[in-house]
Write a structure and sequence with these properties.
Layout: H1 2-17, H2 20-41, E1 58-62, H3 66-69, E2 77-79, H4 84-92, E3 99-102, H5 107-113, E4 124-128, H6 134-153, E5 159-160, H7 172-210, H8 212-217, H9 223-256, H10 270-297, H11 301-319, H12 340-350, H13 356-381, H14 384-387
Length: 390
C-alpha cells in the first residue's frame, strides 16, 4: 500500500516541480505579490471605525468642574460617583466605561490663574481609554474635541494627556491581536484555497482530459491508493503555496498597518505558530480533498475551475466570520463544522486566546473529513461513468 501511494506522490511531485513556471506561479508568486501589493497600500488600508449614531459615551470623571457638568447638548454622559480605581477596571474590562477623565482638584481656579507667558506647566486633564475598543476610541476622540474647544475658549490654558501616561490601556499584544485576528484568517483561507485550486483541477480533471488517468486505473493498484496518493501530494504542494502567502503577509503587515504604533507581529510565540501550522496543514488536506472531488466530476480543467468557484465563495463567506464577534464559536462543538472551525481556530491563535482543545478538535475533524473525502474519491475512481466522462 505504502509503495503505491508513494509512487503516485512521486509522479505528482515530478509533474509539478519539473514545470518551473508552475512552481514559480504557485509557490513563490503569491508571497511576492502579497508583499509588494500591501507594502504599496500602506496607510491607505488603515481602518477607520465609528460607533452607531445613537452611541452616548460614558465618561467617568474625577473632580469634574461644574462648567462641564452644566454644559447642555454634549454628546457624552458624565459619571462622577464612581472611584477612579473602579472606573479604570470597568474601562479595561470594557464594561460600560469608555473613558476615565481625571481633572485637577482646583481645575477651574488653576485655569483662570494660569498665564501662558509664565513658563510654568499648564493644568493637565488626563484621559484614560482603550484603543482596541471602538466605543472607547470614539469616546476618547469626542472628549478630546470637547476639551479642545474649552481650551480654545480659555486661550490655551491647560493641556490634555501631556504627562508621562500611558493613557491607552490596550497593550501592544491587544492591538496586534485585534488587527491580526480580523484580517489574517480571511487572508490565509483565501491563500490556501488559491494554492489548492491552482493544482488540484490540473492533477485530476487534467489527467481525465488527457486520458492518462485511465492508464493508471488499469494497473493492479487499489483505487484508494490512487486517491490517497493524489490527496497527500497535492496537499503538500498546496501547503507550500499557503506558507508562501503567509510569509508574504507577515512581512508586509508592518507596512500594511501604516506604521501604527503598538502593532508588532513579533509578539507571537513559537507555540502560537505551531498551532497555526497544524490548522493550516489540516485545512490544506480538507480543501484539496473537496476540490479533488469536484474536479473528478469535471470533464476538463476549464470546467473544473468553473465548478470550484462556488466553493471559493463559500470559503470567503465563512472566513468573514472572523471579523464579526457574534459569529464566533461559543462552544467546542462548533469546531466540528468544516472550514468554519479552521477560521475560528486561526482567529483564536491570532488574538492570543488559543483554545488548544478546540484546535485539536479542528485538526482531528479535518483529518476525518479528509478521510471521508478520500473514500468518496475512491468510489468515484471506481465508477467508469465518472472517470471516462466526456
Amino acid at each position: 500500500m505504502k509503495s503505491n501511494i508513494i509512487t503516485i506522490m512521486k509522479k505528482e511531485f515530478a509533474r509539478f516541480f519539473k514545470d518551473r513556471r508552475m512552481v514559480f506561479t504557485t509557490i513563490f508568486m503569491p508571497g511576492i505579490l502579497i508583499y509588494v501589493m500591501y507594502s504599496f497600500m500602506g496607510q491607505g488600508l488603515s481602518a477607520l471605525y465609528s460607533s452607531g449614531e445613537d452611541f452616548i459615551p460614558q465618561i467617568y470623571a474625577e473632580n469634574l468642574p461644574e462648567a462641564f457638568s452644566e454644559m447642555e447638548g454634549l454628546p457624552v454622559e458624565f459619571i462622577t460617583d464612581t472611584p477612579k480605581e473602579e472606573a479604570m477596571t470597568l474601562l479595561e474590562e470594557e464594561k460600560g466605561c469608555h473613558v476615565v477623565a481625571v481633572f485637577p482638584e482646583d481645575f477651574t481656579e488653576s485655569v483662570a490663574a494660569y498665564e501662558v507667558s509664565s513658563g510654568e506647566e499648564a493644568p493637565q486633564v488626563e484621559l484614560y481609554y482603550k484603543s482596541t475598543s471602538t466605543d472607547s476610541s470614539t469616546a476618547y476622540t469626542m472628549m478630546q474635541e470637547i476639551l479642545a474647544s474649552y481650551e480654545t475658549s480659555m486661550v490655551n490654558k491647560f493641556d490634555i494627556n501631556q504627562g508621562e501616561g500611558p493613557y491607552d490601556l490596550a497593550s501592544e499584544q491587544d492591538m496586534a491581536g485585534m488587527m491580526f485576528s480580523m484580517m489574517l484568517p480571511l487572508l490565509m483561507m483565501v491563500f490556501l484555497f488559491s494554492g489548492c485550486m491552482a493544482i488540484a483541477p490540473e492533477s485530476i480533471a487534467g489527467e481525465k482530459e488527457r486520458g492518462t488517468i485511465a492508464t493508471l486505473l488499469v494497473t493492479p493498484m487499489k483505487r484508494s491508493h490512487l486517491a490517497l496518493g493524489k490527496i497527500f501530494s497535492l496537499s503538500a504542494i498546496g501547503l507550500l503555496s499557503g506558507l508562501s502567502s503567509f510569509i508574504g503577509t507577515m512581512l508586509s503587515l508592518p507596512k500594511l498597518m501604516g506604521g501604527v504604533e503598538g502593532v508588532d507581529a513579533g509578539v507571537y510565540q513559537v507555540g502560537d505558530y505551531l498551532l497555526l501550522l497544524a490548522v493550516i496543514l489540516s485545512t490544506a488536506l480538507l480543501l484539496i480533498s473537496l476540490i479533488s472531488i469536484i474536479s473528478a466530476f469535471a470533464q476538463n480543467v476549464k470546467e473544473a475551475t468553473s465548478w470550484v468557484t462556488p466553493l471559493m465563495i463559500v470559503v470567503v463567506v465563512i472566513s468573514i466570520t472572523s471579523m464579526i464577534d457574534s459569529f464566533r464559536a461559543s462552544n467546542n462543538v462548533m469546531y466540528l463544522i468544516p472550514l468554519y472551525n479552521s477560521v475560528q481556530s486561526m482567529n483564536g491563535v491570532f488574538s492570543f486566546e488559543p483554545n488548544v482543545a478546540a484546535v485539536v478538535l479542528t485538526v482531528v475533524s479535518n483529518v476525518v473529513y479528509t478521510g471521508i473525502c478520500a473514500g468518496i474519491l475512491t468510489k468515484m475512481f471506481g465508477n467508469e461513468r465518472v472517470v471516462f466522462s466526456k
